[in-house]
């Protein structure tokens, strides 16, 4: 499948049209941003690692019954995906308190939550991704009740699957962000699942292995992403092939 | 019913215990605050007007089947209320975009909403009343699913009743904030309904008749509250007696 035109260039990825109207190429850049793009750096190899991790995770989710936009990995930085009409609601699932949740509700970072928490944010860099309730989603017409219900259900399923997936490689899945889109009248999981979009802590040392290393200037960002990928490969490669 | 001990002094009201364990005196102060108490002034007579307005509104709501904490007005600044265990979730109903909603979602002030929007906030001055979703309410155990369902239903009923109530006196009910509490195992409407807790605009001139006059230094704060009360009395006094 060949790339044709650049459809959209985002902060971390570029989408290209293909010969097929229904398919896009998702290209993973090395660009890394935080705070709605205010902080920005190019981190060598990050795009390759993220494309690889996202590939393994989408394949794992598909195998376990989750419908995603993933078709196949085309090259180190490119994956073929189903073209979606993205629903501008970021769905966040949290297992452990971290980040903005701690600041918003005065909870100490690292506090385990009694049950997985699903939060919703309006995808808008300009407005700094403000939090929303399901009521806002319906009012603004971003998704129907049925669609948001499907997204929530899928997000909780993904959480159960990924908790297990990471637990096997001694990583605690603290939280993650998902995006969904409409494809052929169906709501499917889109975008990426990578250390850019998840909080991942080493289970024994609680070492941060995700984008917080970049946000907080902790150094060894790509090294940590590579460590996540190394563990994934060690545990899952032979099983999956 | 006599006041005994000061139970709680808030930003705008004081609660006193009474001879009855089940009843409190709610005393309306002239103190007026905004921005979580950062801005503060004493506005002469405000407490009297707010006590009077809240009285008429609670009586009107009770007459139309809404369960409230209101028992009776005892004096110009005091009402007898049922003692509640306050649920720390402020329920906001919006009919027209204004205030924080506009800033959060980039909507122009004054835009009518397609349908009434219910929002939830965690009542915490310290955290600046952060927005929450029903999911947060359940996770933190602030209210059960059943209680929040009752609060939401009651809030929408109150909205329909108050839209009509204010429409009759040429006032647009833009939005308002409610607090609920548990009393004898039942969830009832508590706190106050006043120009401190509602946005009220004159329907023909769009003049602001509520606490935004204080927040935005527009002057004539108590005068506007008095105008609201004057219209209420003119329209409702003879009907109610
Ligand atoms: N399958 C898909 N079809 C269409 N758009 C997609 C698909 N998957 C992801 N997207 C969108 O493509 C963009 C991915 O690039 P990214 O750099 O993450 O952008 P952004 O800066 O907007 O987050 C996102 O806006 C995302 O919503
Ligand atoms: N019926 C009631 N029983 C117990 N507490 C109540 C009742 N009605 C209102 N309250 C609480 O009393 C306080 C009223 O005073 P206020 O000045 O508004 O306080 P605050 O500064 O906390 O908003 C609020 O905290 C409110 O939640
Ligand atoms: Mg993105
Ligand atoms: Mg109050």
UniProtKB/TrEMBL annotation, chains A, B:
Belongs to the SAICAR synthetase family. SUPFAM superfamilies: SAICAR synthase-like. This is Phosphoribosylaminoimidazole-succinocarboxamide synthase. It comes from Phorcysia thermohydrogeniphila. The gene is purC. It is an enzyme of class 6 (ligase). Pathway: Purine metabolism; IMP biosynthesis via de novo pathway; 5-amino-1-(5-phospho-D-ribosyl)imidazole-4-carboxamide from 5-amino-1-(5-phospho-D-ribosyl)imidazole-4-carboxylate: step 1/2. Pfam families: SAICAR_synt (PF01259). It comes from the Bacteria. It catalyses: 5-amino-1-(5-phospho-D-ribosyl)imidazole-4-carboxylate + L-aspartate + ATP = (2S)-2-[5-amino-1-(5-phospho-beta-D-ribosyl)imidazole-4-carboxamido]succinate + ADP + phosphate + 2 H(+).
